[in-house]
Specification:
Helices cover 16% and strands 32% of the residues. The chain contains three helices and twelve strands, in the order βααββββββαβββββ. A hairpin with a 7-residue loop joins β2 and β3. α1 crosses α2.
């Protein structure tokens, strides 16, 4: 099944804003933020028959056991069909070896997320629920996204629109 969806980087301005908002210690360190942004790799499947698109770390991380880390990927997914969703899962090796996985277990990126105020910037909050420290280098694949079609019920009458990032569909 082919999709019209594609991955692209969020703008540098959006990435910088999100980094400073979530990591205020980097405010004023333009060279560092620009270096991280310039090194962002677009998600890619590892093999021709892989279902998941690997998401790569924009910077190295060191995550102690029983703690979490918020990762601004710098990536957005655009042009998804109305009945398509990007589901985010752990990489099987990291999940098995470390129990390093999304804190909500499966991230859901809706088709309209790319149109939100944050340009659809995909953040991943990953948790190390294992017994070993997770030490991963910049550029390492750390989670995977799978594009899927979904259905809605016959009596569905939802007509609200998104305007925001995490938790923006809360009523």
């Amino acid at each position: 099944m082919k999709s019209n969806a594609r991955f692209e980087k969020v703008s540098y301005e959006q990435f910088k804003k999100d980094v400073i908002e979530n990591f205020p210690e980097f405010e004023g360190d333009e060279d560092y933020i620009k270096g991280v942004y310039n090194g962002i790799k677009l998600p890619k499947r590892g093999t021709k028959k892989s279902a998941g698109y690997d998401f790569f770390l924009p910077e190295g991380i060191y995550v102690f056991t029983k703690t979490s880390v918020l990762i601004p990927t710098g990536i957005r997914c655009v042009d998804m069909a109305e009945d398509e969703v990007l589901m985010m899962y752990p990489r099987s090796g990291l999940g098995t070896k470390y129990r390093f996985c999304p804190s909500n277990l499966t991230g859901i990126i809706d088709a309209d997320y790319a149109e939100s105020d944050n340009e659809g910037h995909i953040f991943m909050k990953m948790v190390n629920d294992g017994l070993k420290v997770v030490d991963l280098n910049k550029g390492k694949a750390f989670c995977q996204g799978i594009l899927l079609r979904y259905g809605v019920t016959k009596d569905d009458d939802t007509n609200t629109q998104r305007n925001g990032g995490f938790g923006s569909t809360n009523n």
